[in-house]
Amino acid sequence: MEKRKGFTLIELLVVIAIIAVLMAILMPALQRVKEQAREITCRANLKQYGLVQHMYLDDNDDRYPFSWTSLVRNENPVGGYQRYCRWHDPRYPPDGPLWPYLLEKKINLCPSFKVIAKSEGTRHPSHDPANPVIPFYSYSMNSWLGSKSGDPGGSSLTDSKGRGGIHKRSEISRSKAEVFFFAEENMWGRPGNSNVLNDNALCPDGRDWFGTFHSASSADLNLGTINAVFVDAHVEEVRSALGPKGEDRGKEFGRFEKYGWPNKQPFQ
Fold first, then answer.
1. pTM, two decimal places
2. Is residue 14 part of a domain?
3. Looking at the 3D structure of the chain, how many domains does it have?
4. Residue 119: which domain range?
5. Which of 93, 131, 182, 191 allows an S-S link to 85, with CB 3.0 to 4.6 Å?
């Protein structure tokens, strides 16, 4: 009877080594494909936000909601609550005026943000370990669209220099394709940016900045881009005007995040 020849130990080791090399080559490519799929989903989410914007404005005399409470009416649902935890604590149901229009709740959370939250969710300022880290929203509204002053005071007046945001869509004098409606923020601080996702408003006046986590390497999440939906409802990828080391990468008026200012008249 003919004796069958088996694999030698060296042959097995060579095969294993080849498989390991192939996996090392393929895994980054697979990760890029997965991230691209997550980004497509994120852009689709924000496209829905653009449609929700028009439905809400049609029902509310063309007026935007107050930015700070557009998704969550109360940032401090109980006494002493740490509001930086609000985005990842679904124990307190969302009740902002835009929420009833967002019928599919999955569209409120970027899948890339959800993945990153597993490892970075506790990095935000003043995290309370008693609060669960289960993110349920990740998008923030342009503060100037819900407050003419751009501040929590919510003034409806425009000052003598024409500064301030708007309350009505019809009051936007800048091209509606150049003013963002909702965008993404980071959950962690970076040089020049200590204010992170902690409410429903992204204040593009040097207090808040666009996020950086899409298409960024895991070694430095400050190098990527994010997605934003604009007043005209189109969605595009945007890069923060604040660089990874706090440098100016194209701030508007030398101070502001891009696409925030809603007036045709420059800020003075």
1. 0.85
2. no
3. 1
4. 26-238
5. 131
